[in-house]
Amino acid sequence: MKLETFIIKRLFLMLIVLFGVSVVVFVVARAIPADPVGAILGGNAPIELVDEMRRRLGLDKPLFDQFLDFMSGVVRGDLGVSIKSNRPVIKDIAEFFPATLELAIVAALISIILGVPLGIFSAVHRNKLVDHFCRVFSILGVSMPVFWTGLLLLILFYYRLGWLPGSGRVGIFTVMPPKVTGLLLLDSLLAGDFGAFKDALSHIILPAVVLGYSATASIARIMRSSMLDVLRQDFIRTAKAKGIGRRLVIYRHALRNALIPVVTVIGLTFGSLLEGAVLTETIFGWPGLGRYIVNSLLLLDYPAIMGGTLFVAVVYSLVNLVVDIIYAALDPRMRV
Amino acid sequence: MSRLLDVENLRVIFHTYRGTIKALNGIRLWLNEEERLGIVGETGCGKSVSALSVMRLIEAPGEIIDGQILFEGNDILKLSEEDMDRHIRGKRMSMIFQEPISALNPVFKVGFQIAETIAHCNDISIGDAYKLVPESLEMVGLDWKRSIDLYPHELSGGMAQRVMIAMALAIKPKLLIADEPTSALDVTIQAQILQLLDELVKIGKNAVILITHDLGVASEFCDRITVMYAGNVIEISNSEEIFDEPLHPYTKGLISSIPIIGASRELTGIPGSVPDLVSPPSGCRFHPRCDFCFDRCRTEPPTLSEISPGHFVACHLYSDGVKEG
Question: What share of chain A is helix, strand, coil (3-state, %, to 5)?
């Protein structure tokens, strides 16, 4: 199958998945045994006010009509109005998501740039000293919880050394660059404001390193085992017999095969980073999507919960689509 | 004809948790230019290890611990890895493997994999090498327009082996090593592939080492046969003589275990099984399975000696006046 046909097929499948997710989000939101109106107005509100609120939220309609309203909104990109902020949910997401996206991108870059070479290096020098070092490094990364590494780094670099700021995306005195993409690093560069860029960079380093470290570790581990597996294959012996040299055998013949499972892990990791790393965002006061959704949950802000969840599902599906495309590009056997 | 390959006293071991496997126990092989040598033996007798040693493709946990491999007069065991790649592998020697589909890289197109080989051999770019790929594919009887952009998983076993042959012969090697090239294929395809190989090698004047467990195939294809058993060369002869006058009891056993349609003789096998090479039998490694075994066989390993011109055997039955038993 051609790559284009494959992509179109996958896009179509994604629509079906998203419809399913919408149904589940709707049903779960209605099934929670808590009354949003009660949560907003409090238990002692007069009955007229409660009815009025029900009407405003559309909760007086039959369930199926509510679902149709919700779905028609979703199709038009209208996720309803947040009860807490009284703003369209989509606007809230537009405000919080770029922070998460930026953090996720930087963390993912760190983990790919470190994890992939580390895994290759480890596999090629199997059971040598460097391999043992890399494996200890990876085990630590996988097993240390992010709130723990996060706190340790904060104590060291913020509290003791004072080299890096402790929370937020920029310092309070920094003038924010004009918003283009919502990614501060990019926007400040676009505006040519290097002061703001440096400030944003210094803020993102710690949370990105914390998130990136655990991702680096899992990528390095899977890269190592995948590489070792591929290096045992018959076609590697063929490549060696061709006399093309060790470098090409590893980087041309083995790597492309070994990357296939690694791409999945990278995709899954990136996907979960985009959901918002709640713990990391909380520790570093990072105004991201994870914190937004958790806060909405605590306040029973139904439209925000549904909208946020659906948005995360869309993002996740998109990431998976990209993973599938990369997969198919790497492995011709996948294009079926 | 001048000598192309001369392997002397080659010893290869494999380090395992169970102990050291003595895979090759000081073997001797030689091959003239344009000659075809068959290496025959059971699974685990060391025939593939011999071939891989000649390509210097033995890797940890395997190790070549002794011997010399003279190729065109130079001991290639003394060459560095870089020199092996620069001058020998993929330049003077190439190899065909048993499982053609898994021996091809699944993520590259057939054309690229052949082009890569040509590019390395002739020190040209892969783009330039691509122009020579159609010729190689046509040579092995494939329609190049249809096959050049296929991936290995889109090939049948026979087609894949044709691709491997195209790849191995595209560089016009002095020595072609074919490690069980037909074992993984259907019987009808086996004959086709062997015939193709026969024609191409005749044209290309390549010397060939054919590794097989099938004595019939080997004697039909090759000029000379080397029989191996448990890491030793036990008999060397030209291919007619090995059938007419086998000397070693093991070779005799091999021949009598080949079924012949219409023959009235009983099909006999060789009793026992291949010895464990971590702790091989003392003396002659075949003695526990040999009907003619006597005291000396249990203690003293026999050496290869020439019984008649060009016919060598490693068996005490033929030394010191002891005649055929």
Answer: 75, 0, 25
Alpha carbons A96 and B255: distance in angstroms, whole number:
80
Distance CA B94, CA A61 (A): 77
Nearest CA to CA, how far is A233 from chain B (Å)?
Answer: 8
Q: Is A249 on the interface with B (CB under 8 A)?
A: no
Residues in Cβ contact with B216 at an 8 Å cutoff, skipping those fewer than 6 apart: B258
Judge whether residue B324 has pLDDT over 50. Answer: no
Return the closest-CA partner of residue B38 out of B284, B200, B214, B173: B214
- The tokens describing B18, both together, are 């169970």
Q: What is the mean pLDDT of residues B62-69?
A: 92
Decide if B57 and A239 are in contact by the 8 Å CB cutoff.
no
| Nearest alpha carbon to residue B179 among B217, B219, B211 | B211
Residue numbers of B between 91 and 120 with CB closer than 8 Å to A:
91, 94-95, 97, 99, 102-108, 116-117, 120
pLDDT in tens, B96-115: 998 899 999 999 999 999 99
Q: Mind listing the pLDDT tens digit for each residue in B70-88?
A: 999 899 999 998 999 989 9
Nearest residue to A98 (alpha-carbon basis) of A286, A256, A249: A286
- Is residue B276 classed as helix, strand or coil in its secondary structure? coil
How many angstroms separate the CA atoms of A287 and A208, rounded?
A: 14
- Tell me which of A125, A240, A247 to substitute to probe the interface with B (most B C-beta atoms closer than 10 Å): A240
Query: Residues A151-158: contacts with CB within 8 Å, 24+ apart?
Result: A151/A283, A153/A206, A153/A209, A153/A210, A154/A206, A154/A283, A154/A284, A157/A206, A158/A206
Q: Does B84 reach chain A within 8 Å, measured CB to CB?
A: yes
SS3 assignment, position B25: strand
- Encode pLDDT of A196-236 as tens digits: 888 888 888 888 898 889 889 999 999 999 999 999 999 99
pTM over 0.90: no
- The CB-side HSE value for A334 (13 A sphere, CA atoms) comes to 18
